[in-house]
Amino acid sequence: MNRSYRLVWSHVRQAFVVADERAKTRTKSGVSGALLMALAGALSISAAPASASSVCSGPSTTINGMVTGNTCELDQSGKSLSVDANGSLGTSDYQQSAVVIGNSSGDIGDIAVNNAGTIQAHDGEALSIIASSGANVDVDSIVNQKFVIGTSSAIAVRTGSGSVNIDTITNLAGADITGESSTAIYIDAGEGSVTIGSVTNAGRIMGDSGLYVYGNASSNLGSIVNQTTGIIDGGEESALTLSGSYVFDSTSGNYIPSHLNIGSLDNFGQLKAGSEREAAVELNRINLSGTLTNHEGALIDGGEGGIYISESALGGLNNAGTIRTGTQDYHDGIRLYATSINGDLRNSGSIQAGGDGIEIYQSAITGELTNSGTITSTAVYSNAISLFNIQLGGDLKNTGSLHATYRGISVENSTLNGDLINSGDIQTTSHVDMGDTDADGLSLYAAQIAGNVVNSGSINAADDGIGTKELGGSRTTLGMDLINAAGATISAEDDGLDLEDTDITGLIRNQGTIIGRTSNGIEIDNLTARGMLLGGLTQGAEKGVRLRESSLDQGITITGRVEGGEYGLEIDEVSQADLKIGQGASIRGDVLARNAQVNLIRGSTFTQQNTFDVKRFSIEEGATLNMSSGTSSSGDLSNGFTVSQGFSNAGTLSL
Fold first, then answer.
1. Which range of residues forms the domain containing residue 15?
2. How many CB atoms within 10 Å of residue 208?
3. Domains in the chain: how many in total?
4. How many other CB atoms are found less than 10 A from the CB of residue 42?
5. What confidence tens digit (pLDDT) does each residue in 67-114 have?
6. To 5 degrees, how large is the angle CA 520–CA 526–CA 531?
7. Residue 474 DSSP symbol
8. 211: in domain
9. Residue 35 lies in a domain
10. Is 472 a domain residue?
11. Number of H helices and number of E strands within the chain?
């Protein structure tokens, strides 16, 4: 049968090579498609499969010199191949493998390959494992100490409806497994099954894709370990692609996922993908019973992204190393879709992304989501942490650093069963072409949070420090308190707090510093809460506190400084919120609260600075009011005190 070779770009050779039809065609910048077609036509070659006898006729074969032209067939149980340091086994015929493991007539087992030299197929796969229909192939070990090179894949495993079982695949330090124009290690379970105890790399695995596994619910990988000296370079594609399949469900008439089973995945070295179309690690339809861990000192470097996981289940995800991506806004560090984690997602390392540092969509995590490292997101509309339509069983905590152009932490249409806590640093910088957007430090849209929202660190935002809103008619709810702790800072270009369409079961408490640099310290609209306690400093360029169409059952208690360029407090007549002024309170700016009762509470001394226009003002026993002329800072109110329902004094009034 006549075939034509195809001309493809080899990432490994950095040149065009002639390869079989499984190789993927890629266009290298600067070379036209017309030229490639002309070259391909000129190199069209008629070829037939070579007929070659096996060089591995006995139970044990050792190659210590150069052997070319013939395939080593390990087709009977107990066969083994060893290539010494000075040995070389190579083939050159069209689609001819250097080593073939399998027997079309039945089961084989106890196979071993130990390569300390070179195994190379100049036009095909270096090592091919095939389980024909119904056959079982058992391999004890594949060990590479030097070079395994295929023009297409270096190692390929395929099943029809049979099974392949491999105890270990090991690539030692200093060794190379290279697929020159295709996947370095290619594993396809087909309609059968593949079981591999461990894949361990301490050398280099390199190709136009690194390790590719396509399996199903009958397939199992015990562990994948890339050691400290290990490099898996996917070239134009992913370093690791691990994928389950789909099977037809006759009951529903639909195809449903069939998940590949994996025990654990650990990277101590480097996982790399150069193309902006691929993430370094891609997991689809996977059951990972253990944890995916990028260890301290390790690197995951992907053009399109770092770790992408979809339709999968994991025992945990932990980054203690570095994850690095391209610069576009869709180049995310970690992305989860329709995935469940039965444990925690933790970052204690560095995530450097053009897009979102961590993006989780339509997924569930039973444990905590924590950042104690650094997450940086640089492209327009990129968030450090973005959650949409997720269920989080534990706390969401930042004790490290989050820097983003858009939002530090964005929670939309999601449920958190614990607390949301920032004790680290959050900065949003916005972008010159973003316009007026909600580039908040913490952004909560239709978020349902069972516990507290706490800032005990620093938030510096390009828009609002903490912003809450409704989404699709669903309000944001907090089961406990919203707290800015003593020593903590929220500084924002617009409002320090912008709380809209929100229900808080507990209190809004400020014991630290809240500043709205161009607008308000605290902006509240259509909110319910038990009350507000203002210690520390609450400051806005326009208003310290603004309340509209809201209800605070226990009102607002002030024991700190509330300052506004125009109004210290502005409370509309629809809102329900009385004021209590305690010891240590200071209000700079007018107080407009015509539906509010104001009490100067027992034991406190308060000095008026600007205008008060309120329903009623009362001085309790043991309290002192130092009244002044009360010049209006807004210019909208009459100076002094205006009360619609009276002024009462049971303490001391000093004029």
1. 6-42
2. 27
3. 1
4. 8
5. 988 899 999 999 999 999 999 999 877 778 999 999 767 899 999 999
6. 75
7. B
8. no
9. yes
10. no
11. 1, 73
